[in-house]
Write a structure and sequence with these properties.
The protein has a domain of 190 residues: Alpha/Beta hydrolase fold, catalytic domain (Rossmann fold, 3-Layer(aba) Sandwich). Helix content is 42%, strand content 14%. The protein contains 13 helices and seven strands. A seven-stranded mixed β-sheet has the order 1-3-2-4-5-6-7, sandwiched between helices. Helix 1 links the parallel strand 2 and strand 3. The longest helix has 16 residues. The chain is globular and about 50 Å long.
Length: 273
């Protein structure tokens, strides 16, 4: 499993979303590394991490991260997961409650907990959500349709979820180049979605055990907004909510506002309180 590490202080695990890699955190890492030993991991199937055929349910993905942190010498840590990293972070908090001190999440739903979106929605929302169904299709359909057209498919995804302030072109190209870098890259990127039935069943069990640790839930003003704290209140008792400017890609679109929220929430953990 690939991860970028650095800094001094208590450990902080960062888990990116789809279709990104550890690189999504690049604007936050220098500041966070002043106070924390930061671990920015590539999920199973993504970036430079291994890309097996299976094991993309959130229990297995959470287990990957626990094993990574243990290998780095961290028994307990704080965690931030965004987009697909949010349901993975929830799984880790629910399945391994002895591991986490504090939890931060942003910009996703929790399958089997959050209400499912309707099938027919306005065109701008459809452009942001249609991948949730498309990505679950078998390889002979979605991978065949996307292969060779990665710039069209993933470029549209980054654009639709950004809102009015788009990501820099060089960042989008960086992600797309990784997604067409090898024969297993597309399959790995779709793995989380193809395992949603298993994750749904797991979440049916998880939601019977409410989270007791402090949770910070963050939404982008032009994306999920207050839906994120509302979602986490369905499964956790100690939830703080923050809405930051711009769209879905909060770490890249609103790094200063995100750092301010993280600094305040993680201060007791940083200071050992």
């Amino acid at each position: 499993m690939h991860a970028v590490t650095g800094g001094d202080g208590p450990p902080l695990l960062l888990v990116h979303g789809w279709p990104q890699t550890w690189y999504a955190w690049r604007m936050l890492l220098p500041t966070l590394a002043r106070d924390f030993q930061v671990v920015a991991a590539d999920q199973r199937g993504i970036g430079l991490s291994d890309k097996p055929q299976d094991g993309y349910d959130t229990a297995t993905l959470a287990g990957d991260l626990v094993a990574l942190m243990e290998a780095l010498g961290h028994q307990r840590f704080a965690m931030y997961g965004t987009d697909t990293g949010m349901p993975i972070a929830y799984a880790l908090a629910a399945d391994h409650p002895d591991r986490l001190e504090r939890l931060v999440v942003s910009e996703a739903t929790l399958p089997g907990v959050s209400p499912s979106p309707p099938l027919f929605v306005p065109p701008p929302l459809n452009a942001r959500l249609w991948h949730l169904m498309f990505n679950q299709l078998p390889a002979e359909v979605n991978e065949q349709l996307v292969r060779g057209r990665e710039d069209v498919f993933f470029g549209a995804e980054f654009d639709a979820s950004a809102g009015t302030r788009k990501l820099p072109e060089d960042a989008v190209i960086y992600y797309i180049d990784i997604l067409r870098s090898g024969p297993d890259a597309l399959g790995g990127s779709f793995g989380f979605y193809r395992a949603l039935d298993t994750t749904l069943a797991q979440n049916e069990q998880r939601k019977t055990r409410r989270l007791a640790l402090p949770v910070l839930a963050i939404g982008g003003a032009e994306s999920s907004g207050a839906m994120i704290p509302d979602t986490m209140k369905l499964v956790a008792d100690d939830v703080q909510g923050v809405v930051v400017p711009n769209g879905h890609w909060v770490a890249e679109q609103s790094p200063e506002e995100l750092l301010a929220a993280l600094t305040a929430f993680l201060a007791p953990y940083r200071d050992g309180r």
